[in-house]
Design brief:
By secondary structure, the protein is mainly beta. Helix content is 4%, strand content 29%. The chain has two helices and 20 strands. It has helices spanning 2-9, 167-170, and strands spanning 41-44, 47-50, 56-57, 60-64, 70-74, 106-107, 118-121, 125-128, 143-147, 152-156, 176-179, 192-195, 209-215, 220-226, 248-253, 256-264, 279-280, 283-285, 290-292, 295-296. The strands form nine sheets. A three-stranded antiparallel beta sheet has the order 1-2-3, with no helix packed on it. The chain is flat.
Length: 297
């Protein structure tokens, strides 16, 4: 599944993206699951495949003729092996030979795709898709959004959680366009989606406040109006008021100190802990796709 597939393919960051939360250009096209050494060979049932070369030898057949003479003919199996440009990532078609690729295949440029659309996910690479930006989509399906299951960007109707580039994309569903993690959308556009509210907007009523739900594994999420104090520890928050603990801490993404995400936690400092306990800062695990708030321990 993309969820684990992508998160393990490259993390150098969702926010990573640039999340790094995106976000950059197409990623490495090498085969992440295997390393071939020049000169290594594998022999199976008479067929020899040499990495880095296109030479293969097949089974030899000898037939006798009258008079004691013999002639030998060699049949060469046309099967060859060339892994030099293979992505081969968990079943995704990523070959650079044989013509343009179908949607869902990894790509390095528009020319690699049948659709002539190579949609880039910063730090992860490109995927042949039916669109690259909202401008490529028809008015009735204005959002060009990443579909995590098919690993391509597709045009979608305005709805909660679909990607957007402006409020106009979400207007048809009475929603607004908002980055799930404010400030990161410039690096990772995938985290800017149609939601119910903006952090400093007036969309929420009856005492509710704006907060966001984040889905690391699917590069998505959305903002929504919630009752104050209803976000448990380890949840994304926009303010102390959102958290059950009353504490919303800025938390750095592992390996990316300049990008932070606010997470509800138990403490903001050692003074919030009892006895000899100390406050351990929260953490964001890009590989595992999880948020961990601060804890007293």
């Amino acid at each position: 599944m993309l969820h684990l597939r992508l998160s393990r393919v490259a993390t150098a960051a969702l926010l990573f993206t640039s999340f790094a939360f995106v976000v950059p250009a197409c990623g490495d096209s090498g085969d992440p699951g295997r390393t071939d050494s020049e000169g290594d060979s594998e022999t199976t049932d008479g067929n020899t495949s040499t990495s880095g070369s296109s030479t293969t030898a097949g089974p030899a057949t000898t037939s006798g003729t009258d008079g004691g003479s013999s002639s030998t003919s060699t049949t060469t199996d046309a099967q060859t092996s060339d892994d030099s440009a293979a992505f081969l990532t968990n079943g995704m078609q990523t070959t650079t030979a044989g013509g343009p690729l179908p949607n869902g295949s990894m790509c390095g440029s528009d020319a690699d795709c049948e659709s002539m659309m190579c949609y880039e996910i910063p730090m992860f690479g490109g995927f042949c898709s039916e669109c690259k930006t909202d401008a490529d989509c028809p008015a009735e399906m204005p959002s060009c959004s990443l579909d995590a299951l098919s690993m391509q960007a597709v045009c979608k109707e305005a709805a909660l959680g679909v990607q957007c580039s402006s409020d106009a994309i979400c207007a048809g569903a009475d929603l607004v366009c908002q980055s799930i993690i404010p400030g990161v959308e410039l690096l990772l556009p995938q985290v800017q989606t149609c939601g119910e509210c903006k952090p400093n907007g007036d969309e929420c009523t009856d005492g509710q406040i704006c907060n966001a739900t984040l889905d690391f594994m699917n590069f998505g999420g959305y903002t929504e109006c919630i009752d104050p104090g209803t976000v448990a520890n380890d949840g994304l928050c926009y303010s102390n008021e959102a958290c059950t603990s009353g504490i919303c801490n800025q938390t750095m993404i592992d390996g990316i100190p300049l990008i932070t995400i606010d997470i509800c936690g138990e403490c903001a400092s050692d003074q919030d802990c009892m006895g000899n306990q100390t406050c351990t800062p929260g953490a964001i695990d890009i590989m595992g796709g999880g948020l961990s708030g601060s804890v007293c321990e």
